[in-house]
Amino acid sequence: MTHIVHAPDDPLFELLVDAITDYSIYLLSPTGIIQSWNNGAKRIKGYEAAEIVGTSFRRFFTPEDRDADEPGRILRAVETSGRVETEGWRVRKDGTRFWANVIVSQVRRPTGELLGYAKITRDVTQQREIREALDRTVRTDALTGIANRTQFFESFGELIASATGRVAVAVIGLDRLKLVNDEHGHPIGDLLLRTRAADLVQALDDPRSVAARLGGDQFVCAIPFDTATELSAVLDRVGAAFSTPLPVGQDYVSTTASVGVAVHPDDATDVDHLLIDADLAMSRAKRTLTAGPQFFTAELDDAMRSRRYMAHELSSALARGQMRLVYQNQVRVSDGVVVGREALLRWDHPRLGSVSPGVFIPLAEATNDIIVIGDWVLTEACTQAAVWTDGLRVAVNVSPAQVARDTWVDELRRALEVSGLPPERLEIEVTESALLNQTPDTLRHLMDAQALGVSIALDDLGAGYSSLGTLLSFPFDKIKIDRALIARYPEDVRAPSALRAMLTLGHTLPAQVLVEGVETLDQLRLIEQQGFDEAQGYHLHRPQ
User: Fold this and answer.
1) What pTM, to 2 d.p., does this model score?
2) Which residues have C-beta within 8 Å of that of residue 88, sequence separation ≥ 6?
3) Residues forming a β-bridge with 324
4) Cα–Cα distance for residue pair 197/220, rounded to 1 Å
5) pLDDT in the model for residue 424
6) Rounded distance between C-alpha atoms, residue 374 and residue 137, angstroms
């Protein structure tokens, strides 16, 4: 853009320009010599007109820009294009710097003669600081102050472009954060996250490395390396950083971390897939309680693909009519009379075949599909049991996620009402793990269910979670001994003593005691001799 000046010496025009104090406005000769000076220029740059007019505008530039001939570049550009807009550091008379927005335009007489260049400068330092603060906010994790996912993606791209060797991406899952929050409160949990973030940054002593928080209890770091030994040393420091006890008052909070690693370019060449691969490896480490980092492998990828496929199919299994219930008899040990049946869920998939409950139930719990599936099982079992002519009770397993919901007792009541099943014919089975991870409302919900007339049984006692506190936390109507104990008999001579102790404990509470997994005549005779109340297993009845 070229400005045409008709009367450059007009005093009214000069007064107008001089009255502007928010903008530095002055005229440059074609060679960059300052020809005029307004009050805005004086305020922004600190020079009086008498000491600056007739000198080169180069003095406003930093030494770095003068060495790079930035003033000459601007003059050449405006000479060619007629107008230039740019931003950069400029220097005041007192030597301080400010960030300037600069517009330089050609000024010509009506005849076309080049008079010089009009230069308008505005101090936008504050605006720049605001932009940078917002930019930092967008790229920084608010809680820990380290980089967030957005910044990690950008920094990783720069790291890959400059790396001469390989780069490992490690996803780090902080274990037990929920437990810390529950036991010590969220402020301590937040302190733990901030401390671990700082420890992670310190563990990465290579300035090229990048550390970030992905969110929740997950962190990530990118580690350039040349040898496996070098990478192993860094990962050892990362593991140590996440396992250092955190002082909290007179106590200490101890944590560990699950670490999954993927390597560029071996496993993937883009950051999205590297993060996915490292996250898969981290999940494997968390599930298997692997000591040390878990590296991504093709076998792990295949397993996770299969898991994702199964999760996808599971989400629509009910709608496709692939779920069904079978029942296993529960027998009174003293006389062999059938006193109840346990509802067992089966999934028949057209491609996967009959999928084991031991596979799809944990998957349903992980994907939260267990809520819909569990509600269906409860309603279906009540409906089917209501038409049994023998009037036996039906036992139904419920997941921790179901019991924890505020609506669970209402759904239980509705299932009984819709089916017409009397409450005393329904037995709800909950595992010890459900009580170990209970919400404050879990026990209240179980008590409300018991108040309806429904029996509550503790399932899988002795499966590895056992504690006396669990048994005393609720007045159970029945305790079911996990099949793992009776399976040891007769090979393990300690099995009878362990079973007898469980029986004594159960009757002391008091509660009926049932043994699961009775598969041989010898096992049945043992529990008969010891005086157990009930039993179930393949020796007595196969699910059908």
Assistant:
1) 0.55
2) 61, 62, 65, 70, 99, 100, 102
3) 346
4) 10
5) 95
6) 43
Cβ atoms of 84 and 72 within 8 Å: the answer is no
Q: In this prediction, what percent of the chain has a pLDDT beyond 70? A: 92
Strand, coil or helix: 11: helix
CA-nearest of 113, 117, 43 to 79 is: 117
Indicate whether 117 pLDDT > 90. Answer: yes
**Rounded CA separation 157/330 (Å):** 62
CA distance 180 to 191: 11
Q: Which two tokens stand for residue 202?
A: 């310190």
Distance, CA of 197 to CA of 290 (rounded, Å): 22
Query: Residue 7 — very low, low, confident or very high, per pLDDT cuts 50/70/90?
Result: very low
Residues 6+ apart with CB under 8 A from 496: 489, 526, 530
Tens-place pLDDT, residues 372-401? 999 999 999 999 999 999 999 999 999 888
Instruction: Give dist(CA 265, CA 299) in Å, integer.
Output: 18
Beta bridge pairs of residue 332? 534
Distance between CA atoms of 314 and 369, rounded to whole angstroms? 8
Q: Is 234 exposed, middle or buried (0-12, 13-18, 19+ CB in 10 A)?
A: buried
Bridge partners (DSSP) of residue 211 are 221
Query: How far apart are the C-alpha atoms of 304 and 302, rounded to whole Å?
Result: 5
Burial of 140 (0-12, 13-18, 19+ CB in 10 A): middle
Query: For residue 539, what are the CA distances in angstroms to 259, 396, 433?
Result: 45, 21, 28
Q: Render pLDDT for 183-210 as a digit per residue (tens, 0 to 9).
A: 888 888 899 999 999 999 999 988 899 9
Question: Which phi-psi region, left, alpha or beta, contains residue 100 (left: φ > 0; alpha: ψ -120 to 50)?
Answer: beta
CA-angle at 374, arms to 373 and 375, nearest 5°:
95
Q: If you count them, how many residues does the chain have?
A: 544
DSSP 143-186: TT-SB-HHHHHHHHHHHHHH-SSEEEEEEEEETTHHHHHHHH-H
What secondary structure letter does DSSP report for 53?
A: T
Whether the CB-CB separation of 221 and 200 falls below 8 Å is answered with yes
Look at residue 45 and give its three-state secondary structure: helix
* C-alpha dist (Å) from residue 345 to 326, 363, 390: 6, 14, 22
Question: Is residue 297 classed exposed, middle or buried when 0-12, 13-18 and 19+ CB atoms within 10 A define those classes?
Answer: middle
Residues linked to residue 456 through DSSP beta bridges, in sequence order: 428
For CA atoms 533, 538, 541, 544, give the dihedral sign. positive
Helices (H), 46-140: 49-52, 63-67, 70-81, 125-139
The dihedral through the CA atoms of 199, 204, 206, 208 has a sign that is negative
Determine whether 454 is exposed, middle or buried from the number of CB atoms within 10 Å of its CB (0-12, 13-18, 19+): buried
* Angle formed at CA 151 by CA 284 and CA 138, multiple of 5 degrees: 120
What are the residues facing 150 on neighbouring strands?
none
Q: Which residues contact 247 (CB under 8 A, 6 or more apart)?
A: none
Compute the distance between CA of residue 280 and CA of residue 286 in angstroms, rounded to an integer. Answer: 10
Lowest pLDDT segment from 151-155, 272-276, 303-307, 455-459: 303-307
